[in-house]
Amino acid sequence: MINVDELGARIIWSFGDGSFYITESTLFGLIVAAVLAILGIWLGSRLEQVPRGKQIIAEFLVGWVYKFTENNMGKRNITFAPYVGTILAFGFCASSLGLFGLRPITADLNVTAGLALLTFLMILINSIRRQGIKGKLKHMCDPYPFMFPLKVMEEVALPVSLALRMFGNILGGYIIVELWLHLMTWISEHITTIPFLRAVTVLPLNAVFDIAEPAIQAFIFTMLTVINLTTAMHVSGADEEH
Fold first, then answer.
1. Three-class DSSP category at 9
2. Residue 36: beta bridge partners?
3. Which of 128, 76, 80 lies closest to 232, judged by CA?
């Protein structure tokens, strides 16, 4: 049986009396960030006038992210493309660690809450920057002043929903895969000492929960970020055309 206590992130290192520690979510998150940074630097190095090799891949990825941002936020907000591409790449890679036999760090609510809080601050700061404090307060009181508390609740609900959505889906997939592995191990033990079913039958689940599901959840998280960021800044169709 699965020990429910093991579903949380394990402590890798603890310091002093144990009140300060580093979990696998923190460690794997730093590794994912470092790998993405190194990959980005490598893809962007030694650029030539005529693209070839890795430069073709780099230009395709960057071009797609900028086009995606422009189509959904307008040319006026194309500067948000790096952030959009970053959360999309990090969200996917952080959720796909199961492919390497590791626990996806987005199955940790602390990680998804951090990502959601970062997005919330990005939306809040830029909405105030675009509208001004008075404009923001006016929007929060629209159409009547007594709507202000409800608008505050609506604002707070965004990071909560973003964090719980990704966390719940990735953790659910992780639990399903673990339950299946335990079942296949149990069945294999009644046939041979080698858990062959555990190694073979999990591949379709890996394809779904370690590739497809992370891609979907990362895209949904990014898309909701883009939509809410655009809405918060009140970018109209007329603004985008100019």
1. coil
2. none
3. 128
Q: Which of 85, 107, 87, 82 is nearest to 96 (CA)?
A: 107
Whole-model pTM? 0.85
- For residues 57 and 45, the answer to whether their CB atoms sit within 8 Å is no
Q: Is 8 helix (H, G, I), strand (E, B) or coil?
A: coil
Q: Which residue has the tokens 């009547």?
A: 144
Cβ–Cβ under 8 Å, residues 104 and 81: no
Tokens of 122: 């990005």
Instruction: Report the run of H or E that residue 22 belongs to, with start and end.
Output: strand 20-23
Q: What are phi and psi of 32, to 5 degrees?
A: -60, -45
Distance between CA atoms of residues 177 and 163, nearest Å: 21
**233: Cβ–Cβ under 8 A, 6 or more apart, which residues?**
77, 126, 127, 130, 131
Question: What are the pLDDT digits (tens) for 90-109?
Answer: 999 999 998 888 889 999 99
Q: Residue 46: what are its φ and ψ, rounded to 5°?
A: 55, 50
CA angle 208, 211, 212 (to 5 degrees): 55
Point out which residues pair with 21 in neighbouring strands: 14
According to DSSP, residue 10 is labeled P
Cα separation of 172 and 108, whole Å? 11
